[in-house]
What does this fold into?
Amino acid sequence: QVQLQESGPGLVNPSQTLSLTCTVSGGSISSGGFYWNWIRQLPGKGLEWIGYIYYNGITSYNSSLKSRLFVSLDTSKNQFFLTLSSVTAADTAFYYCARRGYLSRYFDYWGQGALVTVSS
Amino acid sequence: QSALTQPASVSGSPGQTIIISCTGTSRDVGGYSYVSWYQHHPGKAPKLIIYDVTYRPSGVSNRFSGSKSGNTASLTISGLQADDEADYYCSSFTTGGTVPYVFGTGTSVTVV
It folds into this structure.
């Protein structure tokens, strides 16, 4: 059974950088065949796709966040990462990591989510 | 892109059937057979319950079914059970915008 788990600071100061880790178990990121995604839920709003990374390092980002966003991975640790710079209160959200199959158009496994609050 | 529109809440009694709608545009729901639905119990990982409009992943109850007509997709939950009380989100592949996937606004299902 594939499992994903987000981890990282729950509080970030405005203008600083938000960093989250997604640890994958029950499957290897390096085996290919899947896109590893970040998705967030803003307070009182729906979900927003942030971006993905493939095992070979290829990424795709939400155009509205692209200038502040960086997604990376460490296949030796079976982890992938989210870095969002110059955060504001508008970036306060639950952040989820999720898996999507290479040929599929849905997210089959998700993490439980991590709440990140941007506040001084 | 705008989020897909869902009713904020739907309620039903045990055993009843409820339907949750998900309305988009021809650039997402109406243009592709790539609508998926997720069940989310707060504090837990969202769970995929329907993909590609009508398909159920292995292990998902057949009480959940999906359909689509034009720009509106629907999730039907039949034989409503207490454990169905959760938030439900639709999603669709999309083109022409800033993201390849859009999500619904979410529907809170209450079993009364």
Residues 4 and 91 of chain A are 22 Å apart (CA to CA).
